[in-house]
Fold:
Amino acid sequence: MKIPYPEVLEVLENTFRKYGLEASKSNKCAQLFTQASLDGVPSHGLDRVPVFLEMIKKGRINPNAEPSRIETFGFFERWNGNLGPGPLNAFQSMERAVYLAKEFGIGLVALQNTNHWMRAGNFGWQAADAGCIGICFTNTKPNMPAWGGKEPRLGNNPLVIAIPREKGHVVLDIAMSQFSYGKMNIYLREGKAMPFEAGFDREGNLTKSPAEVIAEELALPIGLWKGAGLSLVLDMLASVISGGQATHQVGASGDEFGLSQVFLCLDPERLGMHDWIDQKLDEIINNLHDSATFSNQHVRYPGEHILAIRKKNIKEGVPVDPSVWEKIQGFLS
Structure:
């Protein structure tokens, strides 16, 4: 389905207000969810709205909680998300990291006791649009095995690295699993196998079946043992820097809440990079684009097609699976 952008925003705003969010929070939350689907990431956009609303109903998300600052050390601040809406907490944290970067050259905000931020890339684009290099990461509940393990002990702990560029920002948004669970759920809903091995079945065999991977929560780490190791240290950093929960604590109740996140910004202008950042990035990208390929496909940098996808979907309508839209409307009725 293609639904006009203003209509999607209106439906989401009305739904979020019904579930207790104040008007300003409903508006921003609707923008963040819609932005993900608008940019071609429905798995962490409109697809996640029913999950978000169910978490409010369960009391895992406090719809009008505000993050509170715990400690400040110049360019570094530690905050408590107070179990507020994850996308709003993350947006405010990156906003604060940008503010600190504009003042000190570097800004670091660590956030404990928050909720799922949905599309991680939103906050990379937020930093880059503000002219800052942005790096952010989060832990999750256990949903990926350690290398050689047969049970989920690691999170797929998404990582975002965003670099501002005049001709188009570079924004890398990756989970530590080969496929996010949101993407696997899309393939499961469509009755398709994953294009590459996505994880392990209960016997420890690699499988392309999203149903088997989701059932056992044994997603395949990117780079095999390398991704498993990176996941572990990201969890350590998120927990240690924020003072919040680690992955094994997040998953204790079964639900995913009470996460730990880190938001780091660097201001190129304050740090003396402004004169050469675009030149260097353009040279790197031009070299990448000149790469020979095994087919007629175009080699691209992370985030290269996002603006074109966004423009197309604003014109034609936000894409959404009919069953997902029906669920969202069901929450409003």
Summary: The two ends are 20 Å apart (CA to CA). The chain has two domains: 2-177+221-273+307-332, 178-220.
